[in-house]
Amino acid sequence: MSKKGPHILVVDDDKGILITLRSSLEQNGYVVYSAESGEEALEVFAQHRIDLIVLDLKLPDISGLEVCKKVREQAQVPIIILSVKDTEGDKVEALSSCADDYVSKPFSMLEILARITAHLRRSHTTGPIFSSGPLTVDFSQRSVQVNGHEVDLTPTEYEILTLMIENRGRIVTPKMLISKIWRDEFGITSHNIHVHMHYLRKKIEPDIAAPRFILTLPRVGYRFKVDD
Predict the structure, then answer these.
(1) CATH assignment, 129-224
(2) Is 0.70 surpassed by the pTM of this model?
(3) Which end of the chain is more exposed for a tag (fewer CB within 10 A), N or C?
């Protein structure tokens, strides 16, 4: 195992899954840390540099969603939820609670590896400060403010906002979003995009019922509105 590889924290109370994931990830060059409970996961996260977290929703002490929220208060590392729960409600709750991705058990190891690779490959845009009305984005600091107040975006929400701003005034199709944000990874649908857009709008739009920045073009895609 290369100590220079990305550091992955796997959190699951199923020892069999931990062993399987650790073995596969280490074979692919990752440095793997594991935890069987939420509290242990937070301790490991505090003690080590972690680049990505694979997190089960159902843990014996605090829930995976609570772990997700606490991690997000400290860092913007990608978080992939892994759980037997597979209803739309659970997926929406996980994504809205700061997770970046969701994989249902039983899972394909190839799919997990592909999603981890896709999230770790995402580039970080640097550049000048963008400002439009109440919205300000400092790309060099990855900072987003609305009316002067810091807005806490998940990594995926930030990447979507960045892509929309880079293409402001132009149509951004779901296919383009899947290609640029998720690197064409398996399983991403228009519904996933809609959920992310909904929560991004809740955080940056003055009135989510009448969006000022990100407009929906039915059956076409989205467009970031340029000030007149």
Answers:
(1) 1.10.10.10
(2) no
(3) C
